[in-house]
Structures
1.
Amino acid sequence: MTTGEGATLVAPESPHVAPIEPIVVLVGNPNVGKTSVYNQLTGERAHIGNYPGITVEQRSGRLTLPEQGGVTVVDLPGTYSLSARSAEEQIALDALLGFGGLPHPQVVVAVVDAGQLSRNLYLTLQLIELGLNVVVALNMLDEVPQNPPSPSALASFLGVPVVVTDGRRGGGMVELKRAIARALVEPRRGHVLPSYPPELVADAERVAAALPDAWRATKERDRALSLWALSSIEPDDELAHIPLPLRVRCAEVHAEAAPRDLDRELIASRYAVIDGALERLYAKVDRHPPKRASSERVDKILLHPVWGFAAFLGLMVVVFQALFSWSDPAIGLIEDGARLVSGLLTQALPAGILRDLLVQGVVGGVGNVIVFLPQILLLFLMIGLLEDSGYMARVAFLMDRVLRTLGLHGRAFVPMLSGFACAVPAILATRTMERQRDRLLTMLVIPLMTCSARLPVYTLIIATLFPPSHLFGWLPVQGLLMVAMYVFAIVTTLLTALVLGRTAVKGRRVPLVLELPPYRLPSLKLTLRSMLERGQVFLKEAGTVILACTIALWALLAFPRPDTSATGSPRDSSGEARPNAPHAPHGEAPSALEAEERIRQSYGGRLGRAIEPIFAPLGFDWKIDVGIIGAFAAREVFISTLGLVYGVGDTDDEALPLREKLKQETVGGKPRYTPLVGLSLLVFFALSCQCMSTLAVVRRETRTWRWPAFLFAYMTFLAYTLSFLVYQGGRLLGFG
Amino acid sequence: MTTPAQSLADLHVAEVALVEHVGGERSFRRRLMELGLVPGTRVELKAIAPLGDPLELLVRGSSLSIRRAEAALVRVTPGVRAGAPAATDRARAALPSAPVRGAP
């Protein structure tokens, strides 16, 4: 053994602590304040990783206990039960038992909402049945002002320690840490067990005989696992690493037990023991308990057919406005900053490939990444507040009827709306949907929404190629066209969702079961923290891809370098060598015409010319094709790339010189770019996936290149086909 | 059974009923039962979404929303102690505890 290996086994700063840090897992139903408890326990440091092979995020942090030292705290996704039908849901069981290569936790903290005790105890009961070392954190007791459940009665019922916590305000954290420390030293098993009907026990024993050896432990745990298998394994489930013999046995047992309903026997037995105990858990028996009065009063307004939708529209306008306008100053600041750094670097470094790489590739790329941050942070701030307050579930409740028709989840609304500002934060926001199928479908249609990067392109095309005249004397053609592009985007998005939901992303349409949690005052601290986490994940995971793509695109348009290839003299600008650029200055900055020639000769330019025949039936020439290639960095780059191609240099937002150039371009005495070409180009930009950042985040969210590849393929196909139809159809009708 | 078969989708707003049987696809049935809608549990139709779907149910003190089409798969015995509030375990347990049934 080398010394290096030995050193890694012992934490250098705490040599007396056990070499491998103990693991504490946090489990709980959704909306029980589990994340606030997690944050209180772990402080500021958090690590967001990913469970291997699936798209579930793994959040872990560190807790330091006075005696044991460092403990790793893992926050499991909220769940109502351990039974699973997908690999995503199965992660709960795997993380609790250390299956599937995950580390084995020493303590399990079950965060329980004191106001929803019976449903929360259902999950706790499953943990105890598995023989886990459970500590119950009885949370949100402050929401039960009258007739609260008794923590000591709960502890004696379950047989595990119960600590009263207040995750939001940090109450009870000292006690919870002490209970975790004690549980680490002397593990305790709960003693409550449902009394299952004898037939079900016999069934479980038959399944237990088929359990793989690696799963076996005590008799009690084997039975609990057998019951898990019986309730989870189905012929068409999507569970991971279930051995075939176990699968077969479960199917046999179910078939032989018919017409008994094993799920019902199992679940009803668990609720029976919980319901039986509840009498003891409450201070007094109250036959007419108060309802969730304040939440109900709020719902009377927010779910009202008129006021509810009015409030909904108002809130959505705020969300949209924030993404669309409020983020503008910050985006401008980032762009100015990137320009400033570029300028400084240009002055500081000698001209050449290194400078170009740094200025155009690296600084441009970093700028391309962080320019998304304002919108991402703002969107997650608002989603966090909507989610935390309980309103997000109401959005789904209000909109489900509409979105269901399209095969989408009610929660898809906010991400889709955000898509009108930018697809990148919108795709990240699909995380609010728990099911992979819903997320995927939403992700695949969001890039069709008219994002703000398309607007400058639309403006250029419309202002250049369409007359500023009025239809019927009062309808402005240009404005009408802009509105038509929005309508077109919405219609194609909805139709595409309808089609993709029945083809590419079929999956099973699991019925909607939505919890409407009570309204709560959102915690700003919690929201800010998760907002920063999202930004961090974006920078780390999608940012690197975007940066790499920017550099690759820069190289595509910068190589081969004409200076060296044309004259062999790198410093002396080759401007004079070319007859068409007699007045090229001798300075370091290439003239507009040089830049034009450079782009023409670049790989990107050659590619543009090579694909010209492919895009010619759409009415595009190679110059537009180069613009389209450049636009892959971000749609609005179409304008600056076209500016380079047309030798008008860097264009401002208005791009007036470019507009003139485009108008003057002729072919055989007639204008090269007709309104019909413009229309074809508009359709192409509306539908094509000209955005590497979108592809990068889809890759990040789906953990595979398959879906971004599919997204790019279907959108490009759609764009090509429709532009083709527009252009050729238009020509047949005698336009253009 | 004296009352005619009725489903959750047939209830009026604020009407209380006892769950008799949860039907439908297995994963849906399991999910709904795990959320507390086991036979014998008291359930109230709390509200209907403004567009007519989905429905909001009050079960064991929590509000659940399911679509009308699925609610039609949940058979209930309606009119249990009309006017009585739904069991709200925000204050106390779901009152009638579910009996363990070996066979249907």
Note: The beta strands of chain B are 6-7, 16-22, 42-48, 55-59, 62-66, 74-78.
2.
Amino acid sequence: MSGKPVPVATPETQPFWDGCQLRLLRIQWCDRCQQHFFYPRVACPACGSPASVRWVDASGRATLYSYVISQLPAPGYEPPFIIAIVQLAEGPRMLTNLVGIDADPGVLTLDMPLEVDFEPRGEMAVPVFRPSTASAA
Amino acid sequence: MTPLVSIVGAAETDELGKLPGMSAIELAAQATRNALADAGLTTGDVDGIASAELSPVDLADYLGVRPSWVDTTSVGGCSYLAHVRHAAAAIAAGQATTIVVAHGESGRSRVGQPPWRHTPGGLVEQFEGPYGVVGPVSTFTLGALRYMRTYGVTPEKLAAVAVAQRRWAELTPRALRRKPLTVDDVLSSRMVVYPFHLPECCLVTDGGGALVLVSPQRCRDFPKRAVQVVAAAEAYDSPTAAGLADLTSSPVFARSSAAAFAAAGLSPADIDHLMIYDAFAHLPLFGLEDLGFVERGGAADFVADWRTAPGGTLPLNTNGGGLSYTHTGMYGMFAIQESVRQLRGEAAAQLERVETSFVQGVGGGTFTAGASLVLCRDS
């Protein structure tokens, strides 16, 4: 996937990016608030506490919340391609690309089930999503 | 209503559009000179300067001003609305007497223009940038399909936003796009990011604008009737598109407008003229609903019935907006300018009776920043 942007980790986000290289979608859980959050940070954005936060492996299951089909050139991308907001089964939303499906509104249905995949980027990997292969959602 | 601060000078650059012969700082400086002339003042009268991407310290020096107050708030296209709020507080506190809020952006020609901010390891750059995002066009637009599906908004009705605003631009000689536009024209135009066609995305232009602000106690000492800022509010949310709680509305539109209406003691029924920052065609729809002018889910029908177009009951974006008038990148200054013109009776598409105007701005790569101003004629 040469040419596409390679994310730059910070010390606080490194566990997330390490997870991606292991094909694990790591998000965070706050024991006090009893909810997940994304993007990664030290303290829970709901209660402000760092003590109650721990990393968990997300299921990788998600649904399609909304999307655009970009016709604009972007480094490493061949338009048209899909930029999507997906809703993780655990609750948080992520911005991502959809892969394994045509960039065609006729086949892209909001709320369709998706599952995570990982796309190599240099020495890193980024989470992307593809239509779920599970039989019944 | 007790004014917070008074606008006694307002002007744009002599020209808008493609201006490769002017740098960003000169665009801001020319707009400032024009606004000071409008107020009957000179640079020697200025003791405060606010600008966003462009350093107000640089602009002050370029103008020959030695200010004792600056505001560098840079939160996207609504920065200038925030500057007005901050200037009002500074003037009330005695920190400055005569503040210029200035915008100059070589958004199209990119002469002396800083590049788009890119912070390696930044939040947006880490978690949203790597996915083929090339600017606000990739991210601001993300909620539109969800909105359209939730409320049954057809592509024709989204296109009607661009058509309604073009009708205002047809009446506005300075608007960049003035050729009559139909819904069919929009739908047969090039797709930029589905579901947005080219006329549903803002222009990319060069230009500038500036305001001169003073204490309401001084506002009768100037050549033109002042425009009073009677309320101002700001609201901030996630810089990430995925971090917004809802993508079928704009929480910052709702929060800043509610605070501004409450501070003014007014409601949407009291507003004669409305400007809603329109970087993309769905923003006026979100704004009409989030500000309380139209019930949730009803904005697309409202616009498609031409209620916001010339002759309609709620004049909206009467310069043609970012879609047809101009959009340098940080459009908020031009929304304020049009409200001032309407309240002064100087607009190209002048309305018959305008006592109150509401300006709703937005800033960031998505609905990250919101700022609202309630403006009135000096009574």
Note: The two ends of chain B are 10 Å apart (CA to CA).
